[in-house]
Design goal:
Layout lengths: L2 H57 L5 H12 L14 H23 L5 H33 L3 H22 L1 H7 L7 H13 L6 E4 L2 E8 L2 E8 L9 H9 L6 E9 L9 E5 L8 H13 L3 E8 L1 H5 L4 H19 L6 E6 L8
Parallel strand pairs: 3-7, 4-6, 4-7
Antiparallel strand pairs: 1-2, 2-3, 5-6
Helix pairs in contact: 1-2, 1-4, 1-5, 3-4, 3-9, 4-5, 4-6, 7-11, 8-9
Length: about 350
C-alpha cells in the first residue's frame, strides 16, 4: 500500500472513533439531563408521601410507625382499572360506576385509618392521596422509560424523553402545589366554578337551605328579576367535585329548564392573562368525560341550550391556592352570569352549574 492509502484508512478510523465518541457523549449528556429531572420528580413524590403520612398521623390511632407507613403505601399503590372498551356501548355508565366505587372505597379506607378525621377532613385527605398517587405514577413511569433507554443505550429514546421533561416538570410542580391548599382547606384555582355559584347563592338565596338530592351535591333555588334559577355545586368546604350530572338529572325530572350554563376553570395559553374570561357553547367540564357525557345527553334529550363561562388559568394556578387574578375573574364571572340571566325572558327557568373542586368553598 502507498502512503495515500494508509492516510485514507487512518482518517476513516479517526472519523469512526470521533463519531462513536460524539454519540457516547450525547448519550451521557442526555442521561445526565434526564437523571436531574428524575431526581426532582422523586423528591416531589417523596415530599407528598411524607406530607400524607404526617396528615394521617394527626387523625389516626395507630402508634406503630411502620404499620401506618404500610397502610399509606397501600392507599398510594391502589389503581382504578377502567372497563373494557372493545364494545363501547354503555361504557360511560361502567366508567362512572368504577370511578365512584374507587372514590367511595378510598374515603372508607381513610376513615378507618384516621377515625378522628371529620367528613371534610376525610375528603381533603382523599385529595392528598390522589396527589401522591399522581406524583408516584409520573415518577415510576418516567423512571421506567429512562431505565429502558439507558439499558439499550438508545440516544433517540433518551432525546425524546429529555424533550418531554420540561412539560412534565410543569405538571409536577402544579400537582405538588396543591398540597398546601388541601392542608389549609382553602380554595384552589379549580375552585373558581363553585366559588362563582357560591357568590350567587349568598347574594340571592342566603336564607334558603339547599337540597342534597345526591351525595355531596347541593341544589339551590333563587329568584332574579322574575327568572327562576337553580344553582348546582358540590358540597363544600371539603375537597370534592360532587355528582353534578346526577343532580341535574334529578332536577330535570321535576322542572322544565330553558337554559343550562356551566362555569369552570380553563387552561390558558402562555401569554394569556390569568383570570380572563372566555365564553362558549357546550359543557365546560374536564376529567374523564363521563359526567360531561351525561349532561350533554340530558340537554340534548330535553332540547336545552348549553352555554359556558370559562376562567382562564395555568395548570399550576389551577391546583395551587387561588391567586388574586383568578379571584378577580371569579367576581367578574358573577356579573356576567347575572347579565346572562337577566337577558332571558321573564318566567324562564335556568340552571347554573359550578364545576370544579369545592375545597374551601362552603
Amino acid at each position: 500500500m502507498d502512503g495515500d492509502t494508509y492516510s485514507l484508512i487512518l482518517w476513516l478510523i479517526i472519523l469512526a472513533f470521533f463519531s462513536f465518541f460524539t454519540q457516547e457523549m450525547q448519550i451521557l449528556r442526555a442521561i445526565s439531563e434526564v437523571e436531574n429531572y428524575l431526581l426532582v420528580f422523586r423528591n416531589a413524590r417523596d415530599k407528598s408521601l411524607r406530607f400524607l403520612m404526617g396528615q394521617i398521623k394527626r387523625y389516626s390511632d395507630v402508634q406503630d410507625e411502620k404499620l401506618l407507613s404500610s397502610k399509606v403505601s397501600e392507599l398510594v399503590e391502589t389503581y382504578i382499572i377502567l372497563p373494557v372498551d372493545i364494545d363501547p356501548y354503555g361504557i360511560v355508565k361502567k366508567i362512572k360506576h368504577i370511578v365512584r366505587t374507587g372514590e367511595k372505597g378510598l374515603e372508607e379506607r381513610i376513615a378507618r385509618i384516621a377515625p378522628k378525621a371529620s367528613r371534610v377532613e376525610v375528603q381533603n385527605l382523599s385529595n392528598i392521596v390522589e396527589i401522591a398517587r399522581a406524583l408516584n405514577s409520573i415518577y415510576k413511569l418516567l423512571n421506567h422509560y429512562y431505565l429502558i433507554a439507558r439499558k439499550f443505550r438508545s440516544l433517540w429514546l433518551l432525546m425524546q424523553l429529555s424533550a418531554q421533561m420540561p412539560f412534565v416538570m410543569e405538571e409536577v410542580k402544579a400537582i405538588e402545589g396543591a398540597l398546601e391548599a388541601f392542608e389549609r382547606s382553602v380554595p384552589i384555582g379549580d375552585s373558581a366554578g363553585p366559588l362563582v355559584t357560591s357568590y350567587l347563592v349568598r347574594k340571592y338565596a342566603r336564607d334558603r337551605k339547599p337540597v342534597e338530592p345526591v351525595e355531596d351535591t347541593h341544589v339551590y333555588h333563587l329568584e332574579l328579576d322574575g327568572r327562576r334559577v337553580y344553582v348546582i355545586k358540590a358540597r363544600g368546604p371539603g375537597g370534592t367535585v360532587g355528582r353534578l350530572d346526577d343532580a341535574l338529572q334529578w332536577l330535570l325530572e321535576r322542572e322544565k329548564v330553558s337554559q343550562i350554563l356551566t362555569v369552570d376553570a380553563a387552561l390558558k395559553y402562555e401569554g394569556e392573562e390569568s383570570g380572563m374570561l372566555a365564553y362558549g357553547y357546550g359543557v365546560a367540564m374536564g376529567g374523564i368525560g363521563a359526567e360531561r357525557f351525561v349532561i350533554e345527553e340530558l340537554a340534548t334529550k330535553n332540547g336545552i341550550p348549553l352555554y359556558a363561562v370559562l376562567i382562564k388559568m395555568s395548570e399550576a394556578e389551577a391546583l395551587s391556592v387561588m391567586t388574586e387574578e383568578i379571584y378577580k375573574g371569579v367576581r367578574e364571572a358573577v356579573g356576567i352570569i347575572e347579565d346572562f340571566i337577566r337577558a332571558q325572558p321573564v318566567g324562564s327557568t335556568l340552571v347554573i352549574i359550578g364545576v370544579g373542586n369545592t375545597v374551601g368553598v362552603p
